[in-house]
Amino acid sequence: MIEVKNICKAFQGKTILKGVSGKFEQGKTNLIIGGSGTGKSVLLKCIVGLIKPESGEVLYDDRNFLTGDPELKKDVRRELGMLFQGSALFDFKTVLQNVMYPLDMLTKMDRKEKMERADFCLKRVGLEKAHNQYPSQISGGMQKRVGIARAIVLNPKYLFCDEPNSGLDPQTAIMIDALIKEITEEYNTTTIIVTHDMNSVMEIGEYIMFMYKGEKVWEGDKNNILETDVKELQDFIFASKLIRDSRKMC
Q1: What is the pLDDT of residues 122-150, one digit of tens each?
Q2: b/e burial code for range 49-66 (CB count within 10 A of at least 16 → b)
Q3: What is the number of domains present in the chain?
Q4: Do 140 and 174 fall into the same domain?
Q5: What are residue 107's phi and psi, to 5 degrees?
Q6: Is residue 9 within 8 Å of residue 46, measured between CB atoms?
Q7: Percent of the chain with pLDDT over 90
């Protein structure tokens, strides 16, 4: 489990996060949702240590990541897997080499062991025949799957996904959502997904945190989100529906 307590963050005097708290449970797909500029990606970066908040706590299974010593932080980082927005693959590396990269950086495996582990992860995401291709030679959906394979290659306890469906067509987005949920259950990871995609919310939202202007204004799950009386969330859902309907008409 990951717990955040009263996270506050400001940039150049402008407050971005205003005391955000929440619990993200193990074995569940936990979603942070909201419109652009609401602070959801900043919160994710605070959780993984890319940004240091002014105050608050980030607890990985009761280990305080923000105040822990360097060894504790190193241990936690070894347990993280990250799927970046846009996949963030190395253009000059093959698919196999991209997936092997964390193993090269963080393990003492020999080359045979690394190749076997990377091959296993690529098979898990259905890309066993793409080893020698480069990112420019595969589709956006395949690139996302390579990113997922790389994110799980170290068998992480915690999996983070930043806008995993960005730029994907609806069918491919559904497939990526299903894959993330399957992996979460299979590896019993604590998975946190930042998204503005209501399709993802309704498909895999086991815990949902809705953010508005740097604050958590609602939390719940996909079964009760449509019953909300929070106006900001109602507006978000309505706007998302309009966007989906307009795409269907195109």
Answers
A1: 999 999 889 999 999 999 889 999 999 99
A2: eebebeebebbbeeeebb
A3: 2
A4: no
A5: -130, 170
A6: yes
A7: 68
